[in-house]
Design goal:
The structure holds two protein chains of two kinds.
Chain A (H helix, E strand, L loop, with lengths): L1 E5 L3 H12 L3 E6 L15 E4 L5 H6 L7 E4 L4 H14 L4 E5 L3 H9 L3 E3 L1 H12 L10 E2 L8 H7 L18 H4 L3
Parallel strand pairs in A: 1-2, 1-4, 2-3, 4-5, 5-6
Antiparallel strand pairs in A: 6-7
Chain B lengths: L1 E5 L3 H12 L3 E5 L3 H11 L3 E2 L6 H6 L7 E4 L4 H15 L3 E5 L5 H7 L4 E3 L1 H12 L5 E6 L4 E7 L20 E8 L2 E4 L11 E7 L3 H9 L3 H4 L1
Parallel strand pairs in B: 1-2, 1-4, 2-3, 4-5, 5-6
Antiparallel strand pairs in B: 7-8, 8-11, 9-10, 9-11
The chains are: A alpha/beta, B alpha/beta.
Chain lengths: 181, 224
Amino acid sequence: MKYVIVGCGRVGAALAEAFDNDGHEVLIIDTSTRAFDRLSTEFKGQAIRGDGTDEDVLRKAGAERADVLLALTEGDNRNVMAAQLAMEKLSIERAIAKINDPVRAAAYAELGIATICRTTMLTDATLGHLGLRPTGMPSVIAAVPHVHDHEADASRGLAGGAGVEPGPGTAPASSTTERRD
Amino acid sequence: MFVLVVGGGKVGYYLTKELIENGHEVVLMEKDRARAAQITDELGSVVVPHDGCEGKYLGEAGSNRADIVAAVTGDDEDNLVICQMAKHHFDVPKTIARVNNPKNEDLFRHLGVDEIISPTRMALGSIEQDIPVHELLHLAELDNDLEIIEAQLQADSPAVGRTPGDLVIPQECSLFAVVRNGVATALRPDTVLQEGDKVIAIGKADCERMLHEQLIGVGEDRRA
């Protein structure tokens, strides 16, 4: 498997090493070379300095047709954009974005991006540890499987400006629809 | 018309000001409190001092009844998210995004942003128009990857002395007008092209290479 990781923070670096140790091909991108200090000296993957939301940078780094892209920078919107760029432009099958705003995380899962939400993850872990009832909000939200077929995209409303109107059944978290009023 | 502007930089400020002067209902979202207070002093209570990327605040600012959401912050990724949240979460009929990296225009359109404002592209267009290069000039970018381009024929261009019927034009592309001595006329199958003619074409971006070869000829470096 080939993994592309955008953002070499603690989570990005730890995952890069885990994939590397498992014998996978790893490409990790960060805007700061200092971030790569987090990687151990034994890391055999590629570490490239650049903006992971820039199509040219990702292409030049060889991210095209990777199996999975993980967008793990500290900016929710950067992660959203990197993930969408990966799927729409770089023929990457799966993209997972870290989105710490629970509302945005749920909304983007509806648009086909798998999201990880640290906010709900930590909240529920803490509540659970203290023996209190967790919120029950999903912290990892699986995306609607992405199809690399533009006609299919258009029919789902991802392409060409047609608005996506997910049915009530597809909303992964009930809290997202309340915001309409 | 109710317009929700997100981003209180120079673009957002003047946009809001102009819209108010034209009698529209406007709300401006600016997350920096100091900047928000400053704009409130100048334009009145039209400013919501919150981050428009947050679903909660975007809703509170009235996006569910906005006719247009214009995301004009300095960051492309923020503008994309604002437009997508507005479109898919609040059913806003029209979204407009400012795009700084021209490479993002196509992605944004593909992801459902209705209108793109690209200062970089505009400046680039003006610069291209001032330099007599042997290249295709991009006049406008349209939906569905279409663009309008202009090719100025040089003395050694292969199209000089020929008619559109003589040229091999890609299927997804059409030559529709010619500007000769400042006068624009429709291009007919029997129009004989001359040196200095500006041929206007519309087509998919990937037809460019073929058009370049047919109208302007192979580039200097490739000929050598």
